[in-house]
């Protein structure tokens, strides 16, 4: 457990994050569900995992649907200690016909049978019971690292989130969905879900590499098609209209930056080739681009993943160049783009470039 990991990958487009582990052969990867990590910890998951050993936090799990509710506050320790739990059921679903009474009222008008009146009463009682419970768990919810919610439909979700003075506000960063199918909201089901979420997966390295490559290739193809729609064919990418007050390098910079913003990787390559420029060209004026002196720095700062990938994998841009603050392109990146760099490291391999020198 104390061995240093040789490399790691987080694929944010997947429900599972894959890691290289020194305890596994190179042909295998260790998988952990991404939703286990708080969003604040996703940039450095190993640090988070180590912190849970010394000072384990807790998660809140809430399931609701079909008149059933189950909730658990569970500690992040090996024993999965349950700090609080509650489950209850109200008759709110129309037998045989399915659907809630309120949904039927909205669609067909209000019925006046004894059964419909009972279901309406139970719907309101369920809402009140759930919200009373959430209020009693407010301290747990506010200190939780993750809140997993599975709510069948928008109306059920509104019972849990975003109502007036709710313990869980709308757009709470701690709220996570369960990344796989679940069954009826019961305590045994929540226990099963937690065991799955906290389990590890052993995956074949080659298979995961291919999945990531296929995903990136598909995204590149979509970017290319979008670029074709946005720009008329036949445009001469080498054409520039220099202004008298601008230097030649400033003109080159303007054209290259324009292509980066539009994610036009092939245009960047053609422009560099036709003007005999290096992919590591220093952008000018330097007082304007002191923070992003290279194309890779600039593409990283604006989050152009397709351009980043093209500069590194096709044009072999130097990842170790630093800006005036001593930062490489990777160090300049947002957490999401840092994950993308790690994905490229995994896809292209350790021998492709000096990843460690670039702090990837």
TrEMBL record:
Membrane-spanning intervals of the chain: none
GO cellular component, one term: cytoplasm
Species annotation: Tortispora caseinolytica NRRL Y-17796
SUPFAM superfamilies, per the entry: Ankyrin repeat (SSF48403)
Domain notes: The VLRF1 domain mediates binding to the 60S ribosomal subunit.
Cross-referenced Gene3D superfamilies: Ankyrin repeat-containing domain (1.25.40.20)
Superkingdom, taxonomy of origin: Eukaryota
Record-stated family: Belongs to the ANKZF1/VMS1 family.
UniProt-recorded name of the protein: VLRF1 domain-containing protein
InterPro entries noted in UniProt: Ankyrin_rpt-contain_sf, ANKZ1/VMS1, VLRF1/Vms1
